[in-house]
Amino acid sequence: MSIVLRYRGREVDASGVTFIRELIAEHPNKSRWALSKTLCEAWDWRQENGVLKDMVCRGLMLALHRSGAIELPAVRQRPRNPLADRRRPAPVSVDRTPTCVPLGALRPLEFRSVRRTADEDVVDGLIEEHHYLGYTQPVGEQLKYLVLAQGRPVACFAWSSAPRHLGPRDRFIGWSREARKRNIRFLAYNTRFLVLPWVTVPHLASHLLGHMARRLSRDWEALYGHPIHYLESFVDPERFQGTCYRAANWRFLGQTTGRGKDDHTNRQNRSLKEVLGLPVTRRFRELLGAVR
């Protein structure tokens, strides 16, 4: 049977559309929000932690409604969108004394996981103020780190769920579409890496990346219940050469298409980025379901 809609990894054919129409007819008094939860329960559509994918389901139903395949009830209320209305992180007060020393003189370094702690605002504020891309709310599962030397911040990291489709990475891993959908959660994306501008320490950046590669999987599993087998990031070649990543054994895999994750035009609409990757276990292909 032909596919009517593909949305966030879910395919809906004609029988699926009929099922949704009948569900709406059976619950004439339910809101769009309630219908999405009911549909998720009927499909048993859940995240890895068991939580219903009702927000994704709402998007799917809205796409079907806009295409004319189904008729949703009228909107009852328009709640505030916390992502769209999110305030920019405020500047933070930290010791900004210029630091120019050998790496050995900076140790010991403290890597503080700040997700869901008071120090998360410190990381967000420093990234907003000093990273050339500013702060953007990470997507999906995420961890953030504040790196300190003798109690003073020297660097920040932000990690999040990996992009669903990334050609150079997918070819490098060698997994099928089904394996990617099943195992994408075992990848982490380095969304931000910032060595603070008043810190000038040779080899610090690659040292920090190496330490992160050794501990991130353990921290991720403690919070989300599963490990990480592979790390990835993008580098803008018009600004950077990715030297610290390469020094930390990250591998150049190719370039992005410059079209973004939701492109429907097949035309470049942003600058090309270099794709860098780092397996954090030797058996990464086997664990990620690569085709042999």
Describe the structure.
The protein has 292 residues and is an alpha+beta fold. It has 2 domains: 3-67, no CATH class; 103-287, Gcn5-related N-acetyltransferase (GNAT) (Aminopeptidase, 3-Layer(aba) Sandwich). The chain has 10 helices and 9 strands. It has a 7-stranded mixed sheet with strand order 3-4-5-6-7-9-8, sandwiched between helices. Strands 1-2 form a two-stranded antiparallel sheet. Helix 8 (204-224) links the parallel strand 6 (187-195) and strand 7. Helix 2 packs across helix 3. The longest helix is centred in the C-terminal third of the chain and has 21 residues, at 204-224. The two termini are 30 Å apart. The mean pLDDT is 90.
* Uncertain residue segments: none
* Secondary structural class: alpha+beta
Q: Kindly report the name of the CATH homologous superfamily of the largest domain.
A: Gcn5-related N-acetyltransferase (GNAT)
Count of the domains? 2
Strand composition percent? 15-25%
CATH class of the largest domain: Alpha Beta
Q: Which topology of the largest domain does CATH recognise?
A: Aminopeptidase
What is the number of strand segments? 9
- Strand order, main sheet: write it out: 3-4-5-6-7-9-8
**N-to-C span:** 30 Å
Mean pLDDT across residues: 90
Number of helices: 10
The largest β sheet comes out as:
7 strands, mixed
Rg, nearest Å: 22 Å
Shape from CA axes? globular
Q: CATH architecture of the largest domain, please?
A: 3-Layer(aba) Sandwich
Q: Helix fraction? A: 25-40%
H/E series: EEHHHHEHEEHHEHEHEEH
